Predict the structure.
Amino acid sequence: MTEMDHEFARNELYLLGRCGYSVDDIREGRFVLFAHAAGSGKMHYDPHMWGDRTYLTAHKYVSEQFDNLIEGAVIDVQFILGETLAPEQSERFYDIVRDINDEDTGGDQV
């Protein structure tokens, strides 16, 4: 890197740090922007900006476990907090089972 590149990087770190990003996270390349899937427009880098237990817990968990998560995993806050014994399963698995049952019964099962 040239001296100009180093100066640019220092400036970027400063500005991102002033915006609330962790300089350590930036240096390590860890950025988790968490957003409402329904598109409400809310998106935060800092888990504490959510203002509620559910998004705070889920955001922190995803940030800490990001490399270990499986695509499409359910982030079950009650399980993470130890309030339930087993994590919830994704609705997609119930849809698959229902589709298989419908095929086996000709779709007449209620």
